[in-house]
TrEMBL record:
Belongs to the glutamate:Na(+) symporter (ESS) (TC 2.A.27) family. GO terms for cellular component: plasma membrane. This is Sodium/glutamate symporter. Keywords: Amino-acid transport, Cell inner membrane, Cell membrane, Ion transport, Membrane, Sodium, Sodium transport, Symport, Transmembrane, Transmembrane helix, Transport. It comes from the Bacteria.
């Protein structure tokens, strides 16, 4: 086997090209726009398929150095915070609680499905947890973190392969189901869509251009960097007192504080084009992050335990779609905001926070803004789900 590592600068440049490919494909294809397929998915997945073919045909294992990827996610969430009005946050209180309860319920459901199908295949039932909330809601980092426990204490030697493969399938699926779910709900319920002029991320597909000047971009960039600096120290402080949360949560909170506490105190420190600058930078950062996440997928990890993975992931995707349409949409209010939240729920349950947001971005660019959704979903993903998931996983492992 020939192992090839692509330099970080080259990887970043390739990601730009792939994002261009996705954007052009979306512009040229009414079908892709109709189902709100995210732009990064197109180029990123094409790259992953190409790398997979090189592995299977020529035995080349290509990996990308993606050190910049995590910084892009921090910029994105800092931008979300800087555009978040406190009134919207307060109005999102009840939906925040409801969505947290729904996501918690789904964690139990997801693990029960994983354990049951593993038992059906004659495997250790607990191995199904690696194709449950560990790898899907928790993500690849959680899967890797739990692998030593499953291998050394439970004797499940292929735990890592199951977890990484399930996460790969889940991430791809989450990117593909969000837009169609929202489109179906909007059409079936004839929902009144949002304002196309005030999107949280990016611009609408039918916008010919967006007006952003030099100072608008520069001011936005400055405030984003300040939010990242504050977020870094906030993260350090939380770690010191024993609270461990994803770093993007600290950057999100820092952005919210700057927007709602510092900015009103110094209104002259705002440039007219700053909001457009934030939208543009956030859109690029999110698109680049997900493109880089997808292009780095190692599809050959799927070849182990293929029949089990096909069965369990088909079941996980099916219950995610049904739960979203019949439970989440109804309890979140049966309005346009609820449909956008539903587009992100697949990201919460099958992919990642970034997947949830990019799904919602694709829908809002097609149908209009949904401000509350862009606050509620990141807070549920970042603040609550990781903690709740860890508690529930411990319950299932010790059962």
């Amino acid at each position: 086997m020939t192992e090839i590592t692509v330099h970080g600068f080259v990887s970043f440049t390739l990601a730009i090209i792939l994002l261009f490919i996705g954007k052009v494909a979306l512009m040229k294809s009414p079908t892709l726009r109709k189902f709100s397929i995210p732009e990064p998915v197109i180029g990123g997945f094409l790259c992953a398929m190409g790398v997979g073919l090189l592995y299977f045909i020529f035995d080349w294992q290509i990996s990308f150095k993606l050190d910049v990827r995590d910084w892009l996610l921090l910029y994105f969430f800092a931008g979300i915070g800087l555009k978040s009005d406190i009134k919207t946050l307060i109005s999102g209180g009840k939906p925040l609680v409801i969505l947290t309860v729904l996501a918690t319920t789904f964690i139990f459901l997801q693990n029960i499905v994983g354990v049951s199908i593993a038992d059906l295949f004659g495997m250790d039932p607990k191995s199904g947890l690696m194709a449950g909330s560990i790898s899907l809601i928790g993500g690849v980092g959680t899967a890797i973190a739990w692998t030593p426990t499953f291998v050394e204490e439970l004797g499940i030697t292929n735990a890592s392969e199951i977890g990484i493969a399930a996460n790969t399938i889940g991430l791809i699926s989450a990117c593909c189901i969000g837009g169609p779910i929202a489109g179906y709900l909007i059409k079936r319920n004839q929902l009144k869509t949002g304002d196309h002029g005030t999107l949280d991320i990016g611009v609408t597909h039918d916008a010919s251009h967006t007006s952003v000047d030099y100072y608008g971009i520069l001011w936005a960039w400055l405030w984003l960097n300040i939010a990242l600096i504050i977020g870094h120290f906030l993260d350090m402080g939380l770690t010191e007192i024993g609270i461990s949360l994803p770093k993007f949560v600290s950057c999100l909170v820092a952005g919210i504080v700057i927007r709602n506490v510092f900015s009103p105190m110094f209104p002259k420190l705002r440039w007219p084009g700053q909001e457009q600058g934030l939208s543009l930078i956030s859109d690029i950062c999110l698109g680049m992050f997900l493109t880089m996440a997808l292009m780095s997928l190692q599809l050959w990890e799927l070849k182990g335990a293929l029949l089990f993975l096909s069965t369990v992931m088909a079941a996980q995707i099916l219950i995610s779609v049904l739960f979203t349409i019949w439970v989440v949409f109804r309890l979140m209010g049966k309005d346009y905001e609820a449909s956008v939240i539903c587009s992100g729920f697949g990201g919460i349950t099958l992919g990642s926070t970034a997947t949830a947001i990019v799904n919602m971005t694709a829908v809002s660019q097609q149908h209009g803004a949904a401000h509350r959704a862009f606050i509620v979903v990141p807070l549920v993903c970042g603040f609550f789900i990781d903690i709740i998931n860890a508690i529930i996983i411990n319950f299932f492992v010790g059962f």
